[in-house]
């Protein structure tokens, strides 16, 4: 009986070794396709993690940032109606900030505010 | 108020409570798992469906289904779940193939009027060679040929236990049957394969 068990174990070892060898011998094309399949599955997993509002591209943060910027500009000296055109910064640019598809633009908001402050300071010095 | 504070509040307002499901670590763990099973799963599927592209499609479907429906399960459950899904995909493929073959045969029988000579009949039978003269690739082909002859449940039990290394409980979960059934299917598969592969290291002679 023990001999049968040993023989069966040898058989199982042999079949397993053959299978392992066949796995290791997979060609590059197959490995690449499998890698692509795995990436697709990970993308599916990550899509489930992304909040719905971000996935849908809702400009919630963009609107918020635009509102803050508008208040900031309104309180800044020199930034009154009519003077905006003279500064060369059209009010329409606020629509670009509000309609944000990329949050890179949001990061530029502080830069635009600094530009506005510099411009109003220049106008104050010239006027 | 700083701009970054505003954005932080906007994110927190809509942000779901933090949980394991939404961590980078979880994604990395899931990636490691898939990387560890993808090649083996492909080989198992390939043995049954006999076509590379079909096997790749089946594995991809199984990965996607696992990511969609079961990624939130504990990591130790992923393997039996994945192979359960894989088996279901293979079964669905086989059913579709049978229906397709049946439909095609209806058209083929209406047009064929002579018997065609099967070119494979002229290929020498490799099984006649002593096993020690078979290369590894040839030996694997013989094993696959013998596996293909097994009933589906014996195929599953043998490949999950022997090839993938699942224990009896995991194999039962993957196959959707009792542990006793797994043992029965597995022992019958081993017995049949040893008879089929006479002289195949430890087989019957």
Chart the SSEs and their pairings.
The complex is a heterodimer of chains A (about 130) and B (about 200).
Chain A lengths: L1 H23 L3 H22 L2 H4 L4 H16 L7 H5 L5 H6 L4 H5 L1 H18 L1
Chain B lengths: L2 H12 L9 H26 L2 H18 L8 H34 L24 H14 L2 H12 L4 H8 L3 H18 L9
Overall description:
The complex is a heterodimer of chains A (127) and B (205). Chain A is mainly alpha-helical. Chain A has 2 domains: 2-49; 60-126. Chain A is built from 8 helices and no strands. Chain A has helices at residues 2-24, 28-49, 52-55, 60-75, 83-87, 93-98, 103-107, 109-126. The longest helix of chain A is centred in the N-terminal third of the chain and has 23 residues, at 2-24. Mean pLDDT of chain A is 68; it is low at 81-89 and 99-103. Chain B has 2 domains: 23-101, Rna Polymerase Sigma Factor, Chain: A; 134-199, Winged helix-like DNA-binding domain superfamily/Winged helix DNA-binding domain (Arc Repressor Mutant, subunit A, Orthogonal Bundle). Helices cover 69% and strands 0% of the residues of chain B. Classes of the chains: A mainly alpha (127), B mainly alpha (205). Chains A and B meet through α1, α2 and α4 of A and α1, α2, α3, α5 and α8 of B.
Q: Summed up, what is this model?
A:
The complex is a heterodimer of chains A (about 130) and B (about 200). With about 130 residues, chain A is mainly alpha-helical.
Query: Can you tell me the residue ranges of chain B where pLDDT is under 50 for at least 5 consecutive residues?
Result: 6-18
The value of Rg of chain A in angstroms is 32 Å
The total count of helices of chain B amounts to 8
What portion of the residues of chain B fall into strands of 2 or more residues?
A: under 5%
Strand percentage of chain A lies at under 5%
Number of helices of chain A: 8
H and E order of chain A: HHHHHHHH
Number of strands of chain A: 0
Q: List how many beta strands of chain B DSSP finds.
A: 0
From the spread of the alpha carbons, the general shape of chain A counts as rod-shaped
Number of domains of chain A: 2
The protein's oligomeric status is heterodimer
Main sheet characteristics of chain B: none
Number of domains of chain B: 2
**Largest interface between protein chains, with number of residues from each side:** A-B, 42 and 47 residues
The average pLDDT score of chain A comes to: 68
Alpha-beta classification of chain B: mainly alpha
Q: What gap, in angstroms, lies between the N and C termini of chain B?
A: 85 Å
């Amino acid at each position: 009986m023990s001999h049968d068990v040993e023989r069966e174990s040898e058989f199982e070892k042999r079949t397993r070794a053959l299978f392992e060898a066949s796995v290791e011998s997979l060609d590059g094309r197959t490995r690449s396709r499998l890698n692509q399949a795995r990436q697709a599955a990970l993308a599916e997993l990550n899509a489930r993690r992304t909040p719905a509002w971000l996935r849908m591209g809702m400009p919630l943060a963009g609107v918020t940032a635009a509102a803050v910027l508008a208040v900031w500009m309104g309180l800044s000296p020199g930034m009154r109606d009519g003077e905006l055109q003279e500064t060369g910064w059209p009010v329409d640019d606020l629509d670009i900030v509000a309609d944000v598809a990329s949050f890179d633009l949001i990061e530029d908001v502080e830069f635009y505010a600094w530009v506005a402050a510099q411009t109003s300071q220049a106008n104050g010095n010239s006027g | 108020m700083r701009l970054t504070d505003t954005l932080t509040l906007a994110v927190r307002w809509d942000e779901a409570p933090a949980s394991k499901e939404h961590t980078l670590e979880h994604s990395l763990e899931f990636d490691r798992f898939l990387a560890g099973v993808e090649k083996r799963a492909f080989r198992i599927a390939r043995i049954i469906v006999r076509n590379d592209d079909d096997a790749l499609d089946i594995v991809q479907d199984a990965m996607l289904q696992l990511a969609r429906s079961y990624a939130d399960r504990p990591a130790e459950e992923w393997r039996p779940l994945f192979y359960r899904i894989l088996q279901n995909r293979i079964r669905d493929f086989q059913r579709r193939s049978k229906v397709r073959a049946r439909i095609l045969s209806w058209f083929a029988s209406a047009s064929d009027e002579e018997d065609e000579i099967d070119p494979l009949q002229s290929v020498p039978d490799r099984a006649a060679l002593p096993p020690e003269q078979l290369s590894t690739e040839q030996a694997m082909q013989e094993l696959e040929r013998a596996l293909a002859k097994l009933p589906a449940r014996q195929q599953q039990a043998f490949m999950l236990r022997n090839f993938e290394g699942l224990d009896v409980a995991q194999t039962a979960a993957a196959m959707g049957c009792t542990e006793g059934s797994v043992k029965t299917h597995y022992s019958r598969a081993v017995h049949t394969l040893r008879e089929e592969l006479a002289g195949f290291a430890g087989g019957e002679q």
